[in-house]
Specification:
The structure is a single chain. With 261 residues, the chain is of the alpha+beta class. It folds into 2 domains: 208 residues, Bira Bifunctional Protein, Domain 2 (BirA Bifunctional Protein, domain 2); 43 residues, SH3 type barrels. Helices cover 24% and strands 29% of the residues. The chain is built from 6 helices and 12 strands. Strands 1-2-3-7-6-5-4 form a 7-stranded mixed β-sheet, with helices on both faces. Strands 11-10-9-8-12 form a 5-stranded antiparallel β-sheet, with no helix packed on it. Helix 2 links the parallel strand 1 and strand 2.
Amino acid sequence: MAADLFADAIQPRLSTHWLGRDYRFLSLTDSTNSDAIAIAKDGAPHGAVVVADHQTDGRGRLTRSWHSPAGENLYFSVVLRPPWKPSDPRPVSLAAGVALAEALAPRLQTPLLLKWPNDVLVGGKKLAGILVEGSIQGGAVDYVIVGIGLNVNTAEFPPELATIAESLGRLCGQEVDRGEVLAAVLNSLEPWLETLAEQGPEPIVAAWTKHAASLGEPVRVTEHGREYAGVMQGVDPDGALVLVGDDGKPQRIMSGDMLAT
């Protein structure tokens, strides 16, 4: 049953002012990000949330799929109408990562790490992923969609994911209330998004860095067929990864996959 994700199970648990107050639950969909884009185009308000019990075509970065069985995990997307200009990009993905860390870390005995650009790791395995999409109209940001997939109660992953994915239920040794977790994430996400809008990216970057995976360690990054190597120095205010190579010079990378060496 998906009653744990119905609006009447979630909204009483929210301490938010605007996030999740427009709440839309779907038993089945292809992708909550696709649904969020559709309702954003139809005028959905800032803070609208789309949640699904099951996705048939859940998306990750770089056209990858997201394992989305029914009745086990959280798949949701948030519609944002941010006040900043396209010329002033903000690291929304980092803010979402910080919110996930804040909401989930107290439940865990094992440290939670944030892997650039959009993964949440526990014990080196992926617990959650973030996908940010958006639209610019007339020189202004029309909407930004923040999609989150969070492994909550999957007990056994498919063979191709068994060594790289983890779930809260397995880490906690018991089934976890999805509705409780969703409310906790939304309650954490709203203030971090407000901080991003009102104070800029610096507090977000500082908070993200406290949980950063591979900080100060040698890494490799692949981007569009190219590979970069260096020591991870951190992230810039726009979310770019900063590597320092053997020549001692910092290099900014806007997107890609980061691997430990």
